[in-house]
Amino acid sequence: MLTPEAVDAYLHRMGTKRPERATGAALRELHERHVLSIPFENIDFNLRLPVDIGADAVPKITEQRRGGGCYELNGAFSEVLRALGYDVTVMAGRVLENGELGPLMGHLILRVVAEDSPEPWLVDVGYGRGFRHPLRLDSRAPQEDPQGTFELKDAPEGDIDVYRNGSHQYRFEPRPRVVDDFRPTLWWFQNSADSPFLTQLFCTRPTAEGRVTLSGRKLVRVVDGQRTKEELPDDAAVFDAYRTHFGFELDALPHPPAAPAAG
After folding, report:
1. β pairing state of 148-154 and 210-215
2. What's the rounded Cα separation, in Å, for the pair 159 and 29?
3. Which candidate in 45, 100, 108, 151 could, as Cys together with 163 as Cys, close a disulfide (CB 3.0–4.6 Å)?
4. 3-state class of 18 per DSSP?
């Protein structure tokens, strides 16, 4: 269990305060503040730095003011929610990559029950194009969200598919897991030549007006539906972009992975 000081530091990082009760409304607020404040990024993978998950990822988020991948963000958020009084279950998913489902245990998501309602929520603050507000886990009707229209559909073997604007995003199994179950797949993400965390570079977060994304020297901003792309001139501009748009300092810059050789 996280200390009260660690929880308060995490909430401060999100720009919010400790809720009085573990309600559905408070969960909605916490989820939105997390998504808008803490970026989805894979910088440490590309810098070949250690990556912690679950409670061990909390200091990176609170002290370094960084973001991370799903193991880091959802893993850390699960501990914060438990400390606030929510009933939290970790679940595993497979992200759709190039039309195919990725590795088992490739995505960590959460089932959360609030104290004022028995219906479970699907919580995911560690997916780049995910939902801003929790989704009703038991509903199969379309659910409107500032990030799009989301829909949960039953899949084979009791699994559940998540769709955004009609596009399949990932599939998850509703059975309970623990954070340590994901460590072998984390090793694969850190070391495999096929790892999407090593063949891509990204740092992204939605904003109240749209989205901001930085990959290498390419800065893409969406404001009120208008998309602009800027090639930053040098490393100093990239350091400044991480500072300005994502609120953290880096000691070294990650560089986009080399494109695979033709043939």
Report:
1. unpaired
2. 28
3. 151
4. coil
The pLDDT value recorded for residue 259 is: 53
CA distance 127 to 69: 7
How far is residue 190's CA from residue 123's CA, in Å, rounded to a whole number? 25
> To which residue do tokens 């799009």 refer?
148
Tell me the H-state helices in the chain: 4-14, 24-37, 43-46, 58-62, 70-83, 183-191, 196-199, 235-241
Nearest CA-CA partner of 172 in 92, 84, 86, 55: 92
Burial of 103 (0-12, 13-18, 19+ CB in 10 A): middle
Tell me which amino acid residue 100 is.
E
Which amino acid would we find at residue 173? E
38: CB partners within 8 A, 6+ apart: 13, 14, 61, 67, 73, 125, 205
Selection from 129, 206, 192, 193 nearest residue 163 by Cα: 129
Q: What are the beta bridge partners of residue 89?
A: 111
Question: How high does pLDDT run on average in the chain?
Answer: 95
> Do residues 45 and 66 make contact, with C-beta atoms less than 8 angstroms apart?
no
Tokens 């901001």 belong to 212
| Contact partners, residue 225, CB within 8 Å, separation at least 6 | 210
- Measure Cα distances from 244 to 14, 48, 128, 204 in Å: 16, 24, 19, 13
Distance, CA of 169 to chain centre: 13
Tens digit of each residue's pLDDT (9 = 90 or more) over 60-105: 999 999 999 999 999 999 999 999 999 999 999 999 988 999 999 9
188-235 pLDDT tens trace: 999 998 899 999 999 999 999 999 999 999 999 999 999 999 999 999
Residue 150, token pair as written in the block: 């989301």
Neighbours of 236 (CB within 10 A): 9
